[in-house]
Amino acid sequence: MSTDAAVESSVRSNRTAPKHAAKIRGDHDLNPEMGPPSTLREAAVLVPLVDRPEELTVIFTQRTATLSAHAGQISFPGGRMEPEDGTPEETALRETAEEIGLERGRIEIVGRLDTYVTRTGFRVTPVVGVVTPPFILTPDPTEVAEVFEVPLSFILDPSNPQRHSREFLGKPRWFYAFPYPQRYIWGATAGMLVNLRDVLGAAARETGEGAG
Fold first, then answer.
1. What is the DSSP letter of 78?
2. pTM above 0.90?
């Protein structure tokens, strides 16, 4: 069985996903000299895996060009935690409903990825959810310019991720990137996808070993 097929089988049959991970990842992974910010605000995002008959896909949003932060960038639905949320899962589900109109009844939460710290001062908990079609999305036009899906097989492609760099404060800043036709997934979102690759690959290997 190929790695892609093993991953899809693992997610579909066992709803395999990471446990509550303790590792801290972040923008500083590829830039150790930067270090994480000293003050962090809590946030959460949903990593939505859509269980389509032909293959699993991942939902992404493209932020509007008018937003004050990360305008035009590709991201997962999510945002900062509010006191009434209680858990990162509640934050991720609430923000997903607000941003793209995806009903929480279509989402089965299956785990978390590693915490991700951004240089902009957020400690983000990526929450993994399996989304069952059919569903209708109603993006918030003030925040979301577009919603689109990318095959999970693209994320798992051995040629991904790529390491790119840009100048930041006079020095090169390295980051992960997943260039997709007419899309450029990079930064924190790409960093979380690297973690997703690691976790799903490990789950597929464990499933394969168990089957033997």
1. E
2. no
